[in-house]
Automatic annotation (TrEMBL):
<dbReference type="GO" id="GO:0033539">
    <property type="term" value="P:fatty acid beta-oxidation using acyl-CoA dehydrogenase"/>
</dbReference>
<feature type="domain" description="Acyl-CoA oxidase/dehydrogenase middle">
    <location>
        <begin position="126"/>
        <end position="216"/>
    </location>
</feature>
<comment type="similarity">
    <text>Belongs to the HpaH/HsaA monooxygenase family.</text>
</comment>
<dbReference type="GO" id="GO:0050660">
    <property type="term" value="F:flavin adenine dinucleotide binding"/>
</dbReference>
<dbReference type="GO" id="GO:0005737">
    <property type="term" value="C:cytoplasm"/>
</dbReference>
<dbReference type="InterPro" id="IPR006091">
    <property type="entry name" value="Acyl-CoA_Oxase/DH_mid-dom"/>
</dbReference>
<dbReference type="InterPro" id="IPR037069">
    <property type="entry name" value="AcylCoA_DH/ox_N_sf"/>
</dbReference>
<dbReference type="InterPro" id="IPR050741">
    <property type="entry name" value="Acyl-CoA_dehydrogenase"/>
</dbReference>
<dbReference type="Pfam" id="PF02770">
    <property type="entry name" value="Acyl-CoA_dh_M"/>
</dbReference>
<dbReference type="Pfam" id="PF02771">
    <property type="entry name" value="Acyl-CoA_dh_N"/>
</dbReference>
<dbReference type="InterPro" id="IPR013786">
    <property type="entry name" value="AcylCoA_DH/ox_N"/>
</dbReference>
<protein>
    <submittedName>
        <fullName>Acyl-CoA dehydrogenase</fullName>
    </submittedName>
</protein>
<dbReference type="GO" id="GO:0016712">
    <property type="term" value="F:oxidoreductase activity, acting on paired donors, with incorporation or reduction of molecular oxygen, reduced flavin or flavoprotein as one donor, and incorporation of one atom of oxygen"/>
</dbReference>
<feature type="domain" description="Acyl-CoA dehydrogenase/oxidase N-terminal">
    <location>
        <begin position="29"/>
        <end position="121"/>
    </location>
</feature>
<dbReference type="InterPro" id="IPR013107">
    <property type="entry name" value="Acyl-CoA_DH_C"/>
</dbReference>
<keyword id="KW-0285">Flavoprotein</keyword>
<feature type="region of interest" description="Disordered">
    <location>
        <begin position="407"/>
        <end position="426"/>
    </location>
</feature>
Amino acid sequence: MTNQAHYTQNFSPRIDTLAQRLRPIFARIADGAIDREENRILAHEAVKWLQDAGFGALRVPVCYGGYGASLPETFALLAELAEADSNLPQIFRAHFAFVEGRLHEGDNPQAVYWLEQVAQGILFGAAMAELTNSTGTTTTLTRFLHGKKSKWVLDGTKYYSTGTLYASWIVAIATDGTDRIQVAVPVDAPGVTRVDDWDGFGQRLTGSGTTHFKNVVIPDENIINRTPLSEFPTNEYFTTYYQLFHLATLAGIGRAIVRDSVAFVRPRKRTFGIPGQVAQRHDPLVQGVIGRLSALSFSADTLVEKVAWGLEATFPQWVTSQEHGPAFDKAQVQAYQAQQIVAGQVLEAANLLFEVGGASATSISRRLDRHWRNARTLASHNPLVQRQRELGDLVLNGTAFGSRWREKASAVTPSTSTDVKQEHAA
């Protein structure tokens, strides 16, 4: 993999141990990336290789059976994985975020239980987004009487359920009255249906399809947390964390562009406008393009590393259940400043790549177009223009991120619904 030294120079020797274990798997994943892309082969095999190696437990503390990797170590490895195949980090995004949420809860027995389960190999996918005319959640968690006992029942449909096709568990968001509930649902629970219908032109193998929940029984122990709908749905730590996944994946795509452009150029013996055989690698124009690509990749790597260390600075507070403060604010701002630059630079590289090869670089067998398509899809997840405006409002007026959302949500009266309904006919 390219540019590894840049990421490893500031880490303890542990990163080398982790990398030595994982890099052979990353190489195997890279070998099959074009075939999976060309034939739309879901990455079940690659996910299993990673899970068997304990990749999903990178952030789980050693005392619970994981590797206890730091945030910079984790995102360095995720960037390497993205260089091999950019679908894979996104598949694991919800899973890693679930782990991060349990770390926030400290030694809470429920959190410890889930961390130990992750160390044993379970994998989480996400079921959060909905196709509605507003940002509300129509999926419900309702308590019903069942004889003398009561039970929770989950009903609703989720879209863009990233990673769920590969997962053993699903993290779902639902409402109970005016509360927002996060629940853990086994993928094989009665009433759960996963559909492979993600139709994006990039990141086509992330398992981001539709998930249906119909009368799915949820035991009390699978309710992860409950917050009022009037509260902002996430916090500065998680917005930074989620954005870092996209940034690290984009940085990995940048590396893959350098790798593939070099592999394309080195053997070529023909240069446009010059008769006979000329080694293209010695063409000053081609050298200039490759040099630019390497600089763009380096810049993306550097910004991702900077944001990862910024988030790491908040972690001692995070594991004591703190969520707000100057360090969290700073990390979030840096993540969205980096987003403005990294997305543009990697997209520039994905386009510039084709200047080294002419029409032959567009061969389907090479699938060099996947780099632009994947980067463009990733860059579309969080609207750049919206974050740019918010950054400007912050710098000019001191307006905090999410202020507009909080103003509208303040009209919602938070409460905890404890009503128990009679068992429904179904």
